[in-house]
């Protein structure tokens, strides 16, 4: 109504566990999860209808996506996916998610894009749509915000993907992706079509939350164009194929070194959470030192 730009992030409780559906919405006969999905679909429809009612749909970018893959431990109240692994693993099943974008007059309907695209890319991409194509470079130097009256100096891991979405570029602006664990460990990296695992989660279900990752002396390698489900290692010829592709370690090392080097100038702003007893003991020792200093 005010004819001003707006940004809305609608973070629905669907489809996160646990699913509790109203009696009148239990319509599928397939259980709470399926009923909740239909309920969620109706919620999305209400938002899209609202844009139509306000007559702003043609000038609004709509993005639908999610934050991680399925959590198999909570089945049947859980998603299902074809990819190997699940949430809290470095396999594609933990990271690969759907994404749909609508921007009438700019992004062609029924466009299918399969190059690498990460959630980190939305920020610079949306700012580009709003008129700022240089925010990534600006933040490296120091960007003064007029609205917040402060200067921000940050390293953005995202890429401006607007030209890719609009069909002006045939390939993604992103060649690589780094797979990090909740503990801040680098589990794997993707370099174009190839993915290298440095640590793997060999457990399933609830054990992915309670058991350690396995460190690999030589990374597992997968060609995600040929083997998107990461099942090649189940074949008896995998070790030979892996050995014939160890040359990929050289460019991978350079890219890993580059991203790790960025942490020196732009260190993480918050401490990595931990549920281990070692972390609790460390906190107790630090608290004891503070109390002794006061005493």
Helix content class: 25-40%
How does the helix and strand content classify structurally?
Answer: alpha+beta
Cα radius of gyration in angstroms: 22 Å
Termini separation: 61 Å
**Tally of DSSP helical segments:** 9
Sketch the major β-sheet: 4 strands, antiparallel
H/E element order: HEHEHHEEHEEEHEHHH
Task: Report the sheet-strand fraction.
Answer: 5-15%
Q: Average pLDDT, to the nearest integer?
A: 92
How many strand segments? Answer: 8
Shape: globular
Strand order of the largest sheet: 5-6-7-8
Low-confidence stretches: none
Q: Can you give a write-up of this model?
A:
This protein is α+β, with helices and mostly antiparallel strands and 295 residues long. The chain has a domain at 120-172. It is built from 9 helices and 8 strands. It has helices spanning 32-53, 92-95, 122-129, 135-141, 162-165, 207-210, 238-243, 249-265, 277-294, and strands at residues 62-65, 99-102, 143-145, 150-152, 176-180, 186-191, 194-200, 214-223. It has a 4-stranded antiparallel beta sheet with strand order 5-6-7-8, covered by helices on one side. The chain is globular, with a radius of gyration of 22 Å. The termini are far apart.
Give a nutshell description of this structure.
This protein has 295 residues and is of the alpha+beta class. The protein has 9 helices and 8 strands.
Spell out the key features of this protein.
295 residues; four-stranded antiparallel beta sheet; Alkaline_phosphatase_core_sf; Sulfatase_N; alpha+beta; globular; single chain
